[in-house]
Amino acid sequence: MTAPQRLTDRKREAIVAAAISEFRTNGFEVTSMDKIAAVAGVSKRTVYNHFPSKEELFAEILHQLWASSAAQLDVTYSNDRPLREQLRALLQAKMDMLSDANFLDLARVAIAATIHSPERAQNMVNRLSEREEGFTLWVRAAQEDGRFKTVDPGFAAHQLHSLLKAFAFWPQITLGQPPLDAATQANVIESAIDLFLAGYEITAHP
């Protein structure tokens, strides 16, 4: 059983790799499951066995990008570490992902693919939002520990992510600007933390 399973995994990985290449080169609408199958060296039936639709395949690629970033990040709240220190680690991991060329290329493809399909757009947004749930839980834990003011954790998490994306995502996606250099990244992160803590931290906490 293990050998066939390994072969199945290899085929799935080949399909995803082929899809990434095709989506980046040709965009979502032009890319076909037939072409993905040909590039991956598998049958079209094999592709559909793994991914029922092109939308599902693209969603899996986005999921893997987020998962690879999340795997390097510990979003567990710690009551004995400074909030700034924890936030800096969280935002640096987020910044690393936003600076990844693969992620930016595929984000452009995703946006282009959703312009003419609100339903598809909502599905992709929902999938990406699920990947940011960890930080929402972190905010909630800090609140329960008495270190943050009462605020909707999801709203606060979205605010903080948006502070980064305004500098390190949207200009690159919409205007073709290069990724931020290390010094600018650090400045954006520290400024975001300053604003976030000024708005939500309960300063009376020792």
Automatic annotation (TrEMBL):
Keyword line: DNA-binding, Transcription, Transcription regulation
Gene3D superfamilies reported in the protein's UniProt record: Homeodomain-like, Tetracycline Repressor, domain 2
PANTHER family the UniProt entry points to: HTH-TYPE TRANSCRIPTIONAL REGULATOR RUTR, TRANSCRIPTIONAL REGULATOR TETR FAMILY
PROSITE patterns attached to this UniProt entry: HTH_TETR_1, HTH_TETR_2
Domain HTH tetR-type: 9-69
SUPFAM superfamilies (UniProt xref): Homeodomain-like, Tetracyclin repressor-like, C-terminal domain
Organism from which the protein derives: Pseudomonas mucidolens
Lineage top rank: taxon: Bacteria
GO molecular function, one term: transcription cis-regulatory region binding
Listed name of the protein: Transcriptional regulator, TetR family
DNA-binding region(s), chain positions: 32-51
